[in-house]
Amino acid sequence: MKKLNRVASLFAVAAVAAAASSAALAQSVDNWRAADGTVWKNGTSEYCWRDNFWTPATAAKGCDGEIKPAPKVEEPKPVAPPPPAPAPVPPKPVTPPPAPVSEKVTFAADAFFDFDKSTLKPEAKAKLDDLVSKTKSINLEVIIAVGHTDSVGSDAYNQKLSIRRSEAVKAYLVSKGVEPNRVYTEGKGEKQPVADNKTAEGRAKNRRTEIEVVGTRNK
């Protein structure tokens, strides 16, 4: 009976050895497999059991350490160069407006006075008002007022009287808005008569202030 048990044990060992041998042949050299070829894993089925010959190159498919094919890297598509920037358009030349052409303008008038007086008469003020209105249409440069007298009296007295007459004209023009620095005054006394001092009519013509307005006007 003992002999039969020993024989049965030998067969059992042989069967186990054969199964182990076939399992060893069935599994690869990477991870341990069961007899049916299933890879052995840990209790949580997260990792595969490795044998002593395990390498990443021989890892069972689906187990950690498996060498996966490198991802295919697509070659970058050629990018068309941006279109060239349009050539800058040169600015059109600006033609300056023609410079204004000016012409010289002069106005003249006489203001007459009573004998031995430097007070403007009403008719003299009317003439000066007309001159002031004309200066508004021009670029005023200067107004020249030159006083004169008749021959009655001394030269020194008449010289001072002629200056007072020219200053009276300036004062009136300034009161009408003319800039003071635009009015120039001068006295000539009795030196430049325009009529005969031997007659009352001639002397009346000599008691005067000559006014000249100088400026420019665009054509």
UniProtKB/TrEMBL annotation:
Gene3D superfamilies: OmpA-like domain (3.30.1330.60)
Organismal lineage: Bacteria, Pseudomonadati, Pseudomonadota, Betaproteobacteria, Burkholderiales
Listed Pro residues bias regions: 78-98
CDD domains hit by this protein: OmpA_C-like (cd07185)
Transmembrane segment boundaries: none
Domain OmpA-like: 101-217
Start-end of Basic and acidic residues biased regions: 65-77, 185-211
A Gene Ontology cellular-component term: cell outer membrane
Keywords: Cell outer membrane, Membrane, Signal
Name used for this protein in its record: OmpA family protein
Location relative to the cell: Cell outer membrane
Residues of the signal peptide: 1-26
Region (Disordered): 65-98, 184-219
